[in-house]
Design a protein that fits this description.
The complex is a heterotrimer of chains A (477), B (501) and C (95). Chain A has 477 residues and is of the alpha+beta class. Chain A contains 15 helices and 15 strands. Chain A has helices at 53-65, 160-177, 217-236, 282-290, 296-306, 311-318, 321-333, 337-355, 366-377, 383-396, 400-407, 415-428, 430-437, 443-454, 461-475; strands spanning 3-14, 51-52, 69-70, 77-80, 90-93, 100-106, 112-122, 126-129, 136-140, 147-153, 189-199, 209-214, 244-249, 254-257, 270-271. Chain A has a 9-stranded mixed β-sheet with strand order 3-6-7-10-1-11-12-13-14, covered by helices on one side. Chain A has a 3-stranded antiparallel β-sheet with strand order 5-4-15, with no helix packed on it. In chain A, α7 (321-333) packs across α8 (337-355) and α7 crosses α9. Chain A starts with a strand and ends with a helix. Chain B is of the alpha/beta class and 501 residues long. Chain B has a single domain (12-301, 383-492), classed as Alpha-Beta Complex (Amidase signature (AS) enzymes). Helices cover 38% and strands 13% of the residues of chain B. An 11-stranded mixed β-sheet of chain B has the order 1-3-2-4-6-5-10-11-9-7-8, with helices on both faces. In chain B, α4 (106-113) links the parallel β2 (75-79) and β3 (117-122). The radius of gyration of chain B is 21 Å and the shape is globular. Chain C is α+β, with helices and mostly antiparallel strands and 95 residues long. Chain C contains 3 helices and 3 strands, in the order ααβαββ. Chain C has helices spanning 5-14, 21-38, 73-77, and strands spanning 62-63, 83-84, 87-91. The two termini of chain C are 38 Å apart. Classes of the chains: A alpha+beta (477), B alpha/beta (501), C alpha+beta (95). Chains in contact: A-B, A-C, B-C. Chains A and B meet through loops of A and α9 of B. The structure holds zinc ion. The site of zinc ion has 8 residues of chain A, from loops.
């Protein structure tokens, strides 16, 4: 029997606010344990929450960018459970009246993935497990109260690839919106997945499992693929899938059931009496909508139409806001879109890849790449010299001009001088000339290499090609 | 009469005339504490050294004519559920033993900023859950009029301290009557402000949508002064209401002519002590004499107030008290092997029986399958109670009722019967459900015990109810009776109010 | 609606409280008396009545996204039952 997968995602993104959701503590990542806490986020008796306005604004930005309806009445609720990382024994979240609902995101295939809801909530602290056998855990509450949005999709995704594409697109949008840095490795973007299988074409859904501990895009794809295979096998054998939460084990590339707690969860949600309802003025919502930045899809279209970039280039570059910003910054100094795009897709990504860096870490001054492109166009240096120079620009931050001057890099385009070198090389290697004239075209490469050696690599390659052809033609009987 | 038996406004006038200095008042209060505190148990912690030092600084300001405000140099007590940086705050619970907050409640900071001398922290029912102060984990407080009887609760310590001259005034908190009922039992004046008028920041929460901090003092004028000192918008409390500062003494002297007072018949039915009824009706007649028009009204939802109150307040409490887990503060159980066992032992050992009962009730009311039947139903009936009050206040300016249906009861009398104890709040909880303003003033004595009259006002109409209370107190003397050290011992009040005024 | 001892035990577990058998029995009895008295609410027709979570008309209470000083770490940890490496010590949590 053939099965179809039904996948839904629950994505948590930490919002890039300066302070926590209900207090003025900083949200800086990586601070010393418990140095960003106060009576409110430690849940001290008597302390009270006050909602950070930026959190509402950021959630609205996400909702509007994802085509959601914005609630005209929303409230905050308490989700009660006991855990050492949860200082108040309840998480302030939103239960039945989230800020945003009923949106969608469109995949490259044109398929719309429905977004059920987006709500705001507070993060929990971090548990650090003690060394083996010590019998305790350590708690750091720096993260307690960091603002999150939770984005829940309908079960509209059909394949692991679609799920990964969705998450990548979503991440791009959140970054473009400037509301989250979405670093999966730092936990500022987290994703849980629900997945069930049903016979191809069937209407009703199968039993789903919930997958946790997915720490990268790759892991999302693999975990879903693993789960599809596991569930298919069960169903093919006539067994049933157990509704449970499973954990992705990166090391072993498999999912395992999370030890189910004996007690059933009962979160006893109720409206938080310490906080008041949110009723947004339509004018305020409209102003946020009007202030939304250009999103990846629109930017891609603009790159294709405005800069005449091939779709492939535009897609790749706008896939990262940092790369796209860098690209447009280069154009400000020197307008040569296709050349800039080639260099970014080629050298920039290659060097980033070698260093294991993401585009966010790109530190090259866009004026420097622009300057380099201008020098190449002017024939001052060759493309291959340019690559050498760029690598140094990338690694040292020095300007192309400094590097060119320090290393004496230049291009010889003096025709008379080069013609003399060509003539001299042809005299030195008669055998190669002979071979060439007898149809061994490859011999020209050897001769070009010798000319380059003579000129210490500074000869204008285009000019050499032409001169060599001319001089060899003269020798033809 | 000793200085400690004077009212705040009398002392303020003596300061102004430079006849008396804060240190002298402090000395009198300290002496009285020495005489009666052991018997009354009004305080959980005294902070006299700091208060005496503050008094000396206040002396200099008073002498120089540079008082910080009307509270400068006035010895006051605060309930042990108000955080003060560096002072152990226990809410009379074992689970908070040793907890020293690193921050100060907004109201306490306001008192300090205005030069008040904080004498110490008063006894209460554990986490403010109770009506007798017998639920204190450390010791019960006693009624200064009869130490065999309870002072009421949960702000029983604050009420007893003010009545006995162990403080000139005090702050308490009122979730379902916890200021007004002990004020009535101890013969003092206590005011529960409108929800949102006084910042709750730093008040250890019991039921967040009902809790309000308010004053207990010797008369309405003192309550007005205390309220003026602590009321006002606080950006740290999302439920605090914006508004310009109000001088709550401004309408005290207005005549009652033109005021309409409602008498809700549902508050005078079954279970009301006949003596209480007699004294309350006498007070109503007095208000009529003063020019008020008294009309009978009906508040049919009254009988539902008690379940609404106990369901909602317990639900909120069950959530508010989840944080006491022995990790960040407070007492913890020994042994850390198992998480669930650690929580359970810490909480089972740390909370007293009444607190546990309410956590259980609240957890049940919120749990899956019961939410609609209990919590949500209560919130809907709450809406109807609010509407009914709003309707009544279209016709009347204030509503007058007994504060408590009974006289102060004996220690232990109701401890074994939670429902009977809950009945003590029957007249006061509707006010919290609707978030109204209300106060209790002494309106006489029966069998030597004080009886309280509750005056309920519209939201933010504190000036109105204070005006009515003050006009009543101008022509009566019940609020001037003192249980300790003034010659009015209990015997003299037997059979009625001291009528020497 | 009668509450069984079993149900009381389940609620106790949710609330992280523990009771002896005798206490459980007593609590179940009290629960039933209290809930019986509270069943009075069922007399009230609340069809279409919105619940009141807040008596206030206050809404949209926000603070600006401005950093305020956090507690010095010793102050934050001061009331902890046990402290290690600048962190609170909690019972071992198994993942
Ligand atoms: Zn904080």
């Amino acid at each position: 029997m053939k099965f179809e997968a039904v996948i839904g995602l629950e994505v948590h993104a930490e919002l890039a606010t300066a302070t926590k959701i209900f207090c003025g503590c900083a949200t800086k990542y990586g601070a010393e344990p418990n140095t960003q806490t106060c009576p409110v986020c430690l849940g001290l008796p008597g302390a009270l929450p006050v909602l950070n306005e930026k959190v509402v604004e950021y959630c609205l930005r996400a909702g509007l960018a994802l085509n959601c309806r914005i609630a005209d009445f929303s409230k905050l609720d308490r989700k009660n459970y006991f855990y050492p990382d949860l200082p108040k024994a309840y998480q302030i979240s939103q239960y039945d009246l989230p800020l945003c609902r009923d949106g969608f995101l469109t995949l490259a295939s044109g398929r719309r993935i429905r977004i059920t809801r987006i709500h705001i909530e507070e993060d929990a602290g971090k548990l650090i497990h003690s060394p083996e056998g010590e019998g305790y855990s350590l708690v750091d509450y720096n993260r307690a109260g960091v603002p999150l949005i939770e984005i829940v999709t309908a079960p509209d995704l059909a394949t692991p690839e679609e799920a990964v594409e969705f998450l990548e697109k979503l991440r791009g949008i959140l970054i473009y919106l400037g509301i989250s840095d979405c670093k999966m490795e730092e936990g500022s973007l987290r994703c849980d997945a629900n997945i069930s299988l049903k016979p191809a074409g069937a209407k009703h859904l199968g039993t789903k499992t919930e997958l946790k501990n997915i720490n990268s895009f790759k892991a999302l794809g693999r975990a879903l693929a693993y789960e599809i295979e596991r569930q298919s096998e069960l169903l093919a054998e006539g067994k049933t899938v157990k509704q449970e939460t499973r954990k992705w084990e990166e090391a072993k590339q498999r999912t395992l059931p999370l030890r189910s707690k004996e007690e059933t969860q009962d979160y006893r949600y109720f409206p938080d009496p310490d906080l008041v309802p949110i009723e947004l003025d339509p004018a305020y919502v409209a102003a946020i909508a009007a202030s939304l930045p250009e999103l990846p899809e629109a930017r891609k279209r603009r790159f294709i139409e405005g800069y005449k970039l091939p779709e492939y280039d535009a897609d790749l570059i706008t896939g990262s806001k940092h790369l796209a910003d860098f690209f447009e910054a280069v154009l400000k100094f020197y307008f040569s879109p296709k050349a800039a795009s080639n260099w970014i897709m080629g050298e920039v990504l290659r060097l980033l890849g070698e260093e294991g860096l993401t585009p966010e870490a790109l530190a090259v001054n866009p004026a420097h790449l622009a300057d380099l492109l201008r020098r190449i166009d002017a024939g001052e240096i060759s493309v291959s010299q340019g690559k050498t120079v760029f690598e140094k620009v990338f690694r040292t931050g020095a300007s192309p001009e400094e590097i060119i001057r320090a290393e004496g890099i230049r291009q010889i385009s003096d025709e008379a001088r080069l013609r003399a070198v060509v003539a001299q090389v042809l005299q030195t290697y008669p055998q190669s000339v002979h071979d060439y004239l007898n149809g061994k075209i490859k011999a020209a490469q050897f001769l070009t290499g010798q000319i380059m050696r003579e000129t210490k690599g500074q000869a204008n390659p285009q000019l050499i090609k032409e001169l060599l052809a001319e001089e060899l033609a003269k020798l033809r009987p | 009469m000793e200085l400690c038996d004077l009212t705040l406004h009398e002392i303020k006038d003596l300061f102004a005339q430079k006849e008396v200095l804060p240190s002298m008042v402090m000395a009198s209060v300290v002496k009285r504490i020495g005489e009666v505190e052991e018997k009354l148990g009004a305080y959980l912690a005294l902070d006299l050294e700091a208060a005496l030092a503050a008094a000396r600084a206040a002396d200099d300001r008073i002498k120089a004519g540079r008082a910080l405000g009307v509270l400068d140099g006035i010895p006051v007590a605060i309930k042990d559920n108000l955080c003060q940086a560096g002072r152990e705050t226990t809410c009379a619970s074992r689970i908070l033993q040793g907890f020293v907050p690193p921050y100060t409640a907004t109201v306490v900071q306001k008192l300090l900023d205005q030069g008040a001398l904080i004498l110490g922290r008063t006894n209460m029912d554990e986490f403010a859950m109770g009506s007798s102060t017998e639920n204190s984990a450390f010791k019960p407080a006693k009624n200064p009029w009869d130490p065999e009887r309870v002072p009421g609760g949960s702000s029983g310590g604050s009420a007893a301290a003010v009545a006995a001259g162990e403080a000139i005034a005090a702050l308490g908190s009122d979730t379902g009557g916890s200021i007004r009922q002990p004020a009535a039992f101890c013969g003092v004046t206590g005011l529960k402000p409108t929800y949102g008028l006084v910042s709750r920041y730093g008040l250890v929460a019991f039921a967040s949508s009902f809790d309000q901090i308010g004053p207990l003092a010797k008369d309405a004028e003192d309550c007005a002064l205390m309220l003026s000192a602590v009321a006002g918008f606080d950006p740290l409390d999302s439920t605090s209401v914006r508004g310009t500062p109000v001088d709550y003494t401004q309408e005290l002297d207005r005549e009652l002519t033109g005021r309409t007072i409602g008498l809700p018949r549902e508050y005078f039915g079954e279970g009301l002590d006949p003596e209480v009824r007699r004294l309350v009706m006498a007070a109503v007649a007095q208000l009529e004499d003063l020019g008020a028009r008294v009309v009978e009204i009906s508040l049919k939802m009254t009988e539902y107030a008690l379940p609404v109150y106990y369901l909602i307040s317990s639900a909120e409490a069950s959530s508010n008290l989840g944080r006491y887990d022995g990790i960040r503060y407070g007492r913890a159980a020994a042994g850390r092997e198992d998480l669930a066992a650690y929580y359970t032992r810490t909480r089972a050992e740390g909370f007293g029986p009444e607190v546990k009962r309410r956590i259980m009730l609240g957890t049940y009311a919120l749990s899956a399958g019961y939410y609609e039947a209990y919590y949500q139903k209560a919130q809907q009936v709450r809406t109807l109670i609010c509407r009914e009050f709003a309707e009544a206040f279209r016709v009347v300016d204030a509503i007058v009722t007994p504060t408590s249906p009974t006289l102060p009861f004996r220690l232990g009398e109701r401890l074994t019967d939670p429902l009977a104890m809950y009945m003590s709040d029957v007249c006061t909880v509707p006010v919290n459900i609707a978030g109204l303003s209300a106060l209790s003033i002494p309106c006489g004595f029966a069998r030597g015990l004080p009886v309280g009259l509750q005056i309920i006002g519209r939201p933010f109409a504190e000036t109105t109810i204070l005006n009515i209370a003050h006009q009543y107190q101008k022509v009566t003397g019940h609020h001037r009776a003192r249980p300790c050290g003034t010659g009015h011992d209990r015997a003299e009040q037997e059979g009625g109010s001291p009528d020497e005024v | 609606m009668r509450v069984s001892e079993e149900e009381v035990r389940r609620v106790a577990e949710l609330a992280r409280l523990a009771f002896s058998e005798a206490e459980l029995r007593q609590l179940a009895g009290e629960f039933n008396r209290i809930l019986e008295a509270f069943a009075k609410l069922n007399e009230v027709d609340t069809t279409g009545v919105p619940p009141t979570a807040h008596v206030l008309k206050v809404k949209n209470r926000f603070r600006a996204d401005q950093i305020r000083p956090s507690l010095p770490r010793p102050e934050a940890l001061r009331n902890a039952n046990a402290v290690k490496d600048g962190s609170f010590v909690a019972p071992l949590v198994m993942e």
